[in-house]
Amino acid sequence: MKTLVLYTSLTGSTEKYAKDIASAVNGDVFPLKSFKWRNIKDYSIVVYGGWIQGGTIKGLDKFLQHWDKDLKKKDVIIFSCGMTFPTEEGRHVLIEQNLLDLYHVRYYQLRGNFDINKLKPIYKFMIQNSIKMIVNDPDATEDQKALAGIKDHPIVCYDAPKVEKVISVIRSLEVAPKPEQETK
After folding, report:
1. Are 76 and 48 in contact (CB under 8 A)?
2. What's the Cα-to-Cα distance from 170 to each of 19, 45, 76, 131, rounded to whole Å?
3. Is 180 exposed, middle or buried, given 0-12, 13-18 or 19+ CB atoms closer than 10 A?
4. Do residue 76 and residue 94 come from a single domain?
5. Do 128 and 109 belong to one domain?
6. Consecutive sets of 10 residues in the chain, 184 residues long: mean pLDDT of each?
7. pTM
8. Is the residue at 107 inside a domain?
9. Burial class (CB in 10 A: 0-12, 13-18, 19+), 48
């Protein structure tokens, strides 16, 4: 059986991670919106990657709609990609906010790139307005005010250690005996 990597990407970071993971494990990779779910039977390991907006992993709800019928008996890995530094506290918040604790999945939080110029106009407008509000807020922290520089200085990051961790977990799942394969 093979590994399937599905993703939803806004500026390309999640797509790059998905393609790199699939390439490393000789898996197949598709944008979530173009995958034909009738083909899920060909895969034993399914990875989903989505970008983060407001604490929500985009596309995760559409992915998990297939949990009971298509994913429940498979090894599932989920990763998210966002512009903030991954922290243990942030990871727990994302798990809670995206209800990942209700599913038997492995979850990894990766840091991604962020270039406001690659955003669709509506997202660009929203970010620019948020930055204006932060800059004009007398109670904003220096870290929050530093976000104003994002307009002129995109965040460029590739989380190679986390990508390697996901790849190593997939490789260990590929060789692990499944319950029906175990001898008595």
Report:
1. yes
2. 14, 7, 9, 39
3. exposed
4. yes
5. no
6. 94 95 98 97 97 93 96 96 83 91 93 84 87 86 76 85 97 81 47
7. 0.84
8. yes
9. buried
